[in-house]
Amino acid sequence: MKLFAENVSRKNPKLKYRSVWQFPTSTEDFIKKHAKGKILHVCCGSSNLGDVRIDRWKQENQKSDGFIIADMFHLPIKRDSFDTVIADPPWNLAYHVRHKLIFSLRDSIKWSGHLIFNCLWFPKIKCMKLQDLFAGMNNMAFRNVSLIGIYKKIQDQLC
Ligand SMILES: C[S@@+](CC[C@H](N)C(=O)[O-])C[C@H]1O[C@@H](n2cnc3c(N)ncnc32)[C@H](O)[C@@H]1O
After folding, report:
1. Domain 43-153, CATH number (from 3.40.50.150, 3.40.190.10, 3.30.1330.10, 3.40.50.300)
2. 74 vs 87: CA distance, rounded Å
3. Pairing between strand 109-119 and 39-42?
4. What is the pLDDT of residues 107-157, one digit of tens each?
5. In the chain, helix, strand, coil percent, each to 5?
6. pTM confidence score
7. What is the CA(68)–ligand 1 centre distance, in A?
8. Is the beta carbon of 57 within 6 A of some atom in ligand 1?
């Protein structure tokens, strides 16, 4: 049985590689449009979007200015200090630690500021209201879609 067309070489197939975790340009542009004021980007990977960018590892094309190596569960950030927090965490994050991440993101946001959360799950967050939820539609029928939730901080957290 012939699996390949005549003009496709099995030895030298034309493969295109790209970082699978990286924001597609369209996602980055979409998020940029919604991010206002002083911006913190948690789990930024190779994206240079944001005034302060945090990731556990520094990617090659990540600029040094504004980049901090830190753990998303223990952000070295003053409480209530950013207008917008963007987060693109690992999508398969274990269930039992998701709330820890959400609380550290929320606590970094000023009252009335926003969280832009890109993931496959969208949490209910105390002190925040889900304002909008967008699905990144693609043409690949069986591929996961990214959900971008935009939350507004409507109340200060008590502790
Ligand atoms: C979905 S990728 C984000 C990719 C990014 N949007 C980009 O355009 O490159 C998730 C990121 O979370 C980072 N990460 C994983 N565990 C982390 C942790 N405990 N603290 C901080 N960053 C972490 C990974 O290094 C990775 O860059």
Report:
1. 3.40.50.150
2. 14
3. unpaired
4. 999 999 999 999 988 899 999 999 999 998 877 778 778 899 999 999 987
5. 15, 25, 60
6. 0.88
7. 12
8. yes
